[in-house]
Fold this protein.
Amino acid sequence: MGQTEKMMRDIAMEVQYTRRYIGKDALDSRVMEAMRKVPRHKFVPTDIRPFAYENGPLSIGFGQTISQPYIVALMTDMLSPSEQDSILEVGCGSGYQAAVLSQLVKQIYSIEIVSELGEQARQRLRQLGYHNVSIRIGDGYYGWQEHAPFDGIIVTAAAPFIPTALVDQLKPGGRLVIPVGLPYMHQELLLLKKDEQGEIKTTKVLDVAFVPLTGEHAKPSTES
């Protein structure tokens, strides 16, 4: 069995382990095919490429990680992406999540606060032919107003709370996927849906462990 197929099997097994929490026995076949097609080893440092297809997170430098394949697949599935969607990603990292999504939607706008990672991801995605991803270096807390509203928003680092700006930039009928919780403590992967009237419903999907969202506005208040 090749590395990619082993990764796909591991994702499918993890879905079975967590089906009681995620509410399904299998992820969307389009999402799984996108996961199969993206060369994950191209998105990790060369010295850890032998581990690229293991079902776990890996360090990409600057205190950041590339999420485990199962979590990338699950969060992509939670967005219910459609071909004409415009998606905002907060936390581009190595560009892997954006590469997966790029095969499923029309356009991705991705924000990365670590300039070195953002520039590397921009060059990597361009070289690999993912041309429907636009990357901005900056703090994703405020979203990307110029391209709002978005059909979906995905946040790839844990926030202490759901940023209001991101909710505001979500279209009616849109979905926001975000891990919420304090750094290195209990975190929950949440799915926020905005209905056509603008009403919000938030559902907890799974307990998770993400690196924290950075930036001054993402930090929890220390005021008493």
In short: The helical segments are 3-22, 29-37, 69-78, 96-102, 115-128, 164-168.
